[in-house]
Amino acid sequence: MKGIQDTTSLTYRQLLGNGLQYEIPKFQRDYTWEYEQWDDLWHDINVLRKNEESDHYMGYLVLQSADNKNFQIIDGQQRLTTLSIIALVVLKCLKDLINNNINAEKNQKRIDALRNSYIGYIDPVTLISNNKLKLNRNSDDYYRQYLVLLKELPVRNINSSEKQMRECFNWYYERIKKEFTTGEALAAFIDSLADKLFFTRIIVTDEFNAFRVFETLNARGVQLSAADLLKNYLFSVVDESKPH
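Below the sequence we write its predicted structure tokens.
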């Protein structure tokens, strides 16, 4: 076991820069954050906005990578998914301004720039998104086809993870659209946030001991039970051979 390859403190903007991509492995649990975690994060964001703190520590981000460009998320998917949804809410608010004929050209440029920085890009031919974050098999289709493309979010025939992402999006949408009413304010909000949120990134190069990795879970996340830990460890081992 080679263990830890690198430990670095990085802002959210730095994590998403230079073509880096993140994937949640198949064996990881679904998106589970609820009101309590959303509200905690929103409180921390407002503390930053009021300049009561200059930055905010988001905890450990445990990643596995062989090339330092493509990363599997061992711990941190709930936080990264939520931050991605917040960025998408900002894009939706900018789109609302465009639909209301408010600075349409400038706000479209803001959408394009922010999407490239925090979400990824949409192929102009196929209109398929190439995202910086790929969720697990129960969540990625919904994320890619509806959330990223800013489409109306389905209510029926969705699984529990998709339901939680939908509710998360709507929860932040109600707050952000009330707080920021101009394109300038929306862009400044997400850009400032990206520089003030930082993580301790830990990179491992092998199948790191699951119990040691998951003991570094973020303090405000939904905690894993012993059964969750064992399940993730067993699935990670099984996943090595990529069975059906």
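The chain has nine helices and eight strands.
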